[in-house]
Amino acid sequence: MRPDDRKYSPTHEWVKLEGDTALIGITDFAVQELSNGNTSDLVYCDLPEAGRMVKAGETFGEIESVKAVSDLNSPVTGEVVDVNHTIEEHLEILAKDPWNSGWMVKLKVSSKNLDGLMDAAAYEKHVAHSKH
Amino acid sequence: MKTTSIHAIHEQLGAKLIDFGGWHMPVQYGPILDEVNCVRTKAGLFDLGHMGRVHVRGKDALAFVDKIATNYCAKIPVNSIRYSLFCREDGNPIDDVLLYREADSVYIVVNASNTAADLAWMREHAKGFDVVIDDQTDRTAMIAIQGQTSRDILQRAVTGFDLAKLGYYKFDFATVCGLEKTRVSRTGYTGELGYELYLPNAEGPRVWRALTELGAGEGLQPIGLGARDILRLEAGMPLYGHEIDALHNPIEAGLHFGVSFAPEKKDTIGRAALERVNQNPRRKLVGLTTPGPRVPRQGTEVFRGATAVGQVCSGAPSPTLSTNIASAYVSLDAAGAGTELELDFRGKRQACRVQELPFFSRTRK
Prior knowledge:
heterodimer, A: 6-stranded antiparallel β-sheet, 3-stranded antiparallel β-sheet, B: Elongation Factor Tu (Ef-tu), domain 3, 6-stranded antiparallel barrel
């Protein structure tokens, strides 16, 4: 079961509120789709600089595998206050631990309302429908 | 989706399967870049059952193929294979194909994604020709073995035929795994020494397993479509839908060897349009290398300063060259080898350099 201390977007990002800020990352499903369990298939991750404003639904970066590049979409609106540059050099962290050490950006959120997003149970269903 | 006769084996091997041209095909069995390295340093086995295989025969077979295909079919020596294209009147290709010249007939291999369109087009243009168009795709399996040890491995499965005598882009019939009169060609989509086999459908799994065993000592591995795409790009080989398609003609793609301008070919469909392009090409397909970190992709724009000079057709990391590579159409004045250009990734620029294709090939210089 995926962590239920956070919410999930249909495009396989997660967001975890911590006071006024939110951590954002991607789910194990997203990593699996990109790399099929082969961490060497992940080639690049492009993250924004601190200070950048992002709106909910907007692309804040890109993650690239051998076969394709995928947009990273922010589930919430806010200002980027911290960026996990470690994963840019160590993409394998995303495969090992997408939930904690695999966080990508920290936003100072303009609203703590996460109503439009899925909880862990709803996300499980969403993933089940996404598989082919 | 359709499946090849070897499908169950790919599932057993844990391959990631995708829909490719309507076929459920293995894209990878493990890390894609490892599979590329395996073909370049050892050998690889490919299931090509998805590709279209058509036998054209009858009194007018050669004349018919010369009408619909751009190269000079009647001049191909028997048992030789030539790269060719099916082009529309406007000179743009509906597919690129391989023609296998037999005495009075032609065996044609086409792309999986275009098989239905090719057959419809062939049948449309067959009116007035005494010809049989026999689609053998669903009755046959096709396996490729590619890599420097591929001949040694395959020879163990072949009796009464010395593969060393089969030249590049030649085919013949031999006994393979006890199956008499099996078509064997020295062809491939990797730029390595390699062979392709065409088998009755039911024999696909047995021959696959036999080659797997025979090649185990050399490190022969199954290879998916993901690695296949990188290998062919390294080797400078076009993929329909990328380097050539309804908007990109073979002349500007550098595929002159597939197009004949002989007088006898003046009625070939598309000939007039291709002649015009040949006299006045406006862009050129080139290779680009870029140290990274981004990988160019189809559609990535290419700039020289503020001027857009082209667009990427295909891009990939190249484990063989330890850099990222791409094929791209650029305007002629930006096409010289060594030209420094830039790739544009959503406004972020990355340096790249032009080089002639291929990036790497043991078969094509």
